[in-house]
Design a protein that fits this description.
Helices cover about 65% and strands about 0% of the residues. The protein is mainly alpha-helical. The mean pLDDT is about 85.
Length: about 160
């Protein structure tokens, strides 16, 4: 990994976090097909860059988008402990298409398994971060969950491709 690759990790993770929050409704954008395609396209770009410019990584875009298609993908919240497990399953469904593709391409299952942490991320956000507010960007624990899962997606993708 070059120094440039290393230097781009933090901005990539922060941009992914922001785009995942936008997908969740920040800036008043509806969680529509376009709202889900933007973070998917960004993650496809991250995959392309960190795979050493492998053109096959363009498949990350439709596969990531595929994981967001189920109706629950635009409404990821954890209000009860039962929903914690539901969110864990949702996270796994979200990361499954890209994770299987990466595994078949010869990478580890790190990205695929990262979805299992969605439930705990949202639960921790609800437990410890339900009060802070910062305009529309942070309007409750769900906003933190979206930011953290967006950061996780980029981090896990980079880790899968470079480790």
């Amino acid at each position: 990994m070059s120094l440039l690759d290393f230097a781009l990790i933090v901005p990539a993770v922060l941009i992914s976090a922001f785009l995942w929050r936008v997908r969740g409704g920040y800036l008043g954008l509806p969680s529509s097909t376009l709202g889900r395609l933007v973070p998917a396209a960004f993650l496809a770009g991250v995959a392309y860059w960190y795979s050493g410019q492998n053109y096959w990584m363009a498949l990350v875009l439709p596969l990531m988008w595929l994981g967001t298609i189920p109706p629950w993908a635009h409404n990821m919240q954890v209000r009860t402990s039962d929903e914690l497990w539901d969110m864990t399953g949702r996270g796994l469904i979200l990361t499954l298409p890209v994770g299987v593709f990466l595994y078949v391409a010869g990478y580890e299952i790190t990205f695929m398994l990262s979805g299992a942490s969605f439930g705990i991320i949202y639960w921790l956000s609800k437990r410890f971060l339900s009060k802070p507010r910062l305009g529309g960007l942070i309007d409750g624990f769900t906003a933190f969950g979206e930011l953290f899962t967006g950061a996780l997606l980029a981090s896990a993708l980079i880790a899968t491709l470079v480790l």
